[in-house]
Specification:
heterodimer; A: mainly beta; five-stranded antiparallel sheet; 43% strand; B: alpha+beta; D-Maltodextrin-Binding Protein, domain 2; 2 domains; 10 helices
Chain lengths: 380, 438
């Protein structure tokens, strides 16, 4: 049985917002861009301003940026009042290149056109708004794959499982600060679609990866010792499913009494590696044709029993979505709106806290792995 | 101006086919690929981009944002004003024959490759560290280390090429057929495919994956085939030799790029007004201009001009079609342009591939390939204005007219899948990330 670390959502939400790698909001580019533009023009010059967006950021943000830029330009002494005969014409373009957003300002008038440019890190896409019942709480983001994570020790300790290490972060002044890491000695190279699972039972920390099992502790100091082999582990302590084990050099699981290999399992349903949702005997569950390869069971907070959070293909081919289903008489019944995600689901596991799941999505824009907690709330 | 959204890694469906969203990759299976082009050597620098990193790998690579990231090198340090670099190799990397990569095995091949660029360079191997040094600074060393020219490879009697990449060579018939097998001990994770067979010089459309050259865009593709399209990464341009500036300006104003894009590329290409495409530089729109035949005529009438011979590659039917259209546009402006497959004209129609998403490195390479001598060594990709100024100087020299930016097109049958979030070089299809239905 897992030792359950209680995680307060409010705390999580507050501190994890800080922990995310923030991009610069677009509106903050207004002041430095205005300073660069004003250096090309005499003070109090009359200027006509043209604004164009050549990349599709959110329209609200563009209009906020334009407002902020006009204000900053006025602060530098330029006259944007719109006289009929402005001395100079200023065209500001919001565009993008391979590295992110790029602001391009062209000043034309009596002199030849002058150009200034300001690169700006692309704002992260806004987090997917939870639908009526699914609530997404971002926890951590990094460029290296996140296979699994746990929040322990009264919400003060975050453990991140990556393909070659476990990183420990401690909550200090509202921010996650690294305080240790343990490298995993792998007998085989990491699989191309890396997967893994963390387990914390009675003070013992274990990490399960295809072909390797590691054991150790995270207090007083994080340390793990690894050995080749695929030891079994429970996919969910609340789930009656038998223990599972990884298949070496692959991204699939197997379990005694279950026909064939599978990607994930919940409530006796198995996301089979032949792309269907099956029972133990290999019989396809009707009505699950649109389901993806990941599913996790959570307690229904607004009723009895359990429901399933399921990954699915999204409307945008590069982005998955998740949706809640309840199995009634062997048939799936939709219990939530689908929640669009910013990329492909790379991990969906039951969390150490009841009622929550661990979700990792690879953001299709940034390429980063975004680790979140997914919970359910009652619809209004 | 309306800019195209990024098309790279986008699959435009010829018909609706299932994709891998929401599902995990399958391991196993054989993939067949037919390529219209051929090559007779497996040297990574001579291979098409699609294949150049499958067998041999470089110490560093350039990601989709144009940034250097570790590959066979785990880290690097620049010392002494760039005259000395300390490269730490990734541990537990194996060659296809099982030998471990270390500094001693990497140094000779790397030194031979770097000597082509830096004549006085020296490499001191030590354990898992390479110290690269030169009497003069090596500011662009990372660009060199990311080039297929510096791939860490070996050869033996039993194998034409031994590398550390995700696939190993199992059979090689020069110019005809290349067979690859998954390298089980690949440090980056075994490819999903078990093997791949690549047929060269083939115009068939029956393989799992085949390239779609622009000359055959009108060809009917098999039902349910989808097209994978890279970022526009090939520049089609006119390069001049001893053509008066006024004639080049007139020609630039006369050419109707949009009609070439719409008709000859079936809207798969993009009009080019800069050497670097908009997605890479972010400022190409600053060079944009609409065709202006009236102004072109005025310029062309400044002085009497002999007919201009326009050469293109004789085996490139797409280039021929573009050259003929340029000749028509030029005639409207009062210029006589005579397309010819023979080399040596005062105008050359050239197709130049971009190597990576590193805009500065691409500009340097394009400048060299175009035979232009402008200074591009001051560009700093983190300061787009320096890049813009360098490119503007090249264009203002009136020796090159960008025409089109072209993507790579590959047709994929429904059994082929990949995850769109896998972000490697946006200019190439990553075979190691493809998988097939069982």
């Amino acid at each position: 049985m897992f030792q359950m670390a209680r995680v307060g959502f409010a705390l999580l939400f507050g501190l994890t917002t800080l922990a995310r790698m923030e991009a610069q909001p677009m509106v903050e580019a207004a002041a430095p861009l205005a300073a660069r533009i004003s250096s090309l023009l005499p003070r109090r010059a009359t200027v006509s301003l043209e604004f164009q967006v050549l990349t599709p950021p959110a329209m609200v943000e563009s209009s906020r940026f334009r407002g902020a830029l006009e204000e900053e330009l006025r602060k530098t002494g330029l006259d944007l009042s719109g006289t009929t005969q402005p001395e100079s014409h200023l065209r500001v373009s919001v565009t993008e290149n391979a590295r992110g957003l790029l602001f391009v300002a062209e000043v034309s008038g009596k002199d030849p056109r002058q150009v200034v440019m300001l690169p700006w890190s692309r704002p992260l896409p806004s987090d997917a708004k939870p639908a009526l019942r699914l609530v997404l709480k971002p926890v951590w983001e990094q460029s290296e794959p996140v296979l699994d994570f746990m929040i322990l020790d009264s919400d003060s300790q975050l453990l991140i499982l990556s393909p070659t290490r476990v990183t420990s972060l401690h909550l200090t002044n509202g921010k996650w600060a690294p305080n240790g890491q343990a490298f995993l000695t792998l007998d085989r190279p990491v699989a191309r679609d890396p997967r893994g699972r963390l387990e914390f039972i009675a003070g013992a920390l274990r990490a399960f990866l295809p072909g390797t099992t590691c054991g150790g502790q995270f207090q007083p100091q994080l340390g793990l010792t690894c050995s080749p082999g695929n030891e079994p582990w429970p996919i969910n302590p609340q789930d009656p499913a038998p223990p599972v084990r990884w298949v070496s050099d692959s991204n699939v699981l197997e379990s005694a009494g279950v026909r064939g290999s599978f990607y994930n399992a919940a409530r006796d349903l198995f996301a089979s590696s032949n792309e269907s949702i099956q029972d133990r005997a290999g019989v396809t569950a009707p009505g699950t044709e649109s389901w993806g390869n990941d599913l996790a069971a959570v307690a229904n907070p607004c009723g009895s029993g359990n429901v399933l959070i399921v990954s699915m293909a999204g409307e945008n081919r590069a982005r998955d979505q998740v949706q809640v289903f309840e199995m009634i008489s062997g048939q799936p019944v939709v219990r939530s709106e689908a929640m669009a995600l910013p990329g492909a689901v790379t991990a969906l596991w039951p969390a150490e806290t009841p009622g929550q799941t661990t979700l990792v999505v690879r953001n299709s824009k940034t390429g980063n792995y975004e680790a979140s907690r997914l919970a359910l709330a009652c619809a209004e | 101006m309306r800019l195209r959204a990024w098309l790279w890694l986008a699959l435009s469906s010829v018909s609706a086919g299932s994709l891998a969203a929401g599902t995990r990759p399958h391991y196993g299976g054989i993939l067949t690929m037919d390529l219209t082009g051929t090559f007779s050597t497996l040297e990574p620098s001579e291979l098409p981009g699609l294949l150049s990193t499958l067998i041999g790998e470089t110490l560093v690579r350039i990601n989709s944002r144009g940034e250097f990231e570790p590959c066979l090198a785990a880290s690097w340090q620049r010392e002494a004003d760039g005259r000395r670099w300390r490269i730490s190799l990734r541990s537990n990397v194996k060659f296809h024959d099982g030998e471990l990569l270390n500094a001693v095995s990497a140094a000779p091949v790397l030194l031979a490759a770097l000597k082509r660029t830096y004549s006085d360079v020296a490499i001191t191997p030590g354990g898992t560290t390479l110290v690269i040094q030169s009497a003069s600074p090596l500011p662009d060393l990372l660009t060199e280390l990311a080039s297929p020219r510096t791939a860490i490879i070996r050869k033996s009697e039993s194998s034409p090429l031994i590398g550390t990449g995700p696939f190993r060579v199992t059979a090689w018939e020069p110019g005809r057929r290349l067979a690859l097998a998954a390298f089980e001990d690949y440090w980056g994770g075994r490819p999903f495919l078990d093997s791949a067979v690549i047929n060269l010089g083939s115009n068939r459309t029956s393989a799992d994956v085949f390239d779609v050259p622009f000359s055959s865009l009108r060809r009917i593709l098999p039902e349910a085939t989808r097209i994978w399209q890279s970022a526009p990464g090939e520049l089609l341009a006119l390069v001049a030799a001893d053509v008066p500036a006024f004639a080049m300006q007139a020609l630039a104003l006369a050419i109707d790029r949009s009609s070439i894009v719409n008709v000859l590329t079936q809207r798969r290409g993009e009009p080019a007004f800069g050497l670097l495409p908009q997605w890479l530089s972010g400022y190409e729109f600053l060079f944009q201009s609409a065709p202006d035949v009236t102004r072109a005529r005025q310029l062309a009438s400044q002085s009497k001009l002999n007919p201009l011979a326009l050469s293109y590659a004789g085996n490139d039917s797409f280039a021929r079609a573009v050259a003929e259209r340029i000749a028509l546009n030029a005639r409207d402006a009062g210029l006589t342009v005579q397309p010819s497959p023979n080399s040596g004209g005062s105008l050359r129609l050239v197709r130049l591939p971009l190597e990576s998403a590193d805009a500065a490195a691409d500009l340097v390479i394009l400048t060299r390939l175009l035979g232009l001598a402008e200074r591009t060594n001051t560009v700093d990709v983190s300061k787009p204005e320096t890049l813009y100024e360098a490119e503007k100087a090249l264009l203002d020299s009136n020796r090159v007219i960008p025409l089109l930016h072209l993507p790579q097109l590959y047709a994929l049958t429904p059994r082929v899948h990949f995850r769109e979030a896998d972000r490697g070089n946006p200019l190439i299809l990553h075979l190691e990330d493809l998988w097939v239905d069982p």
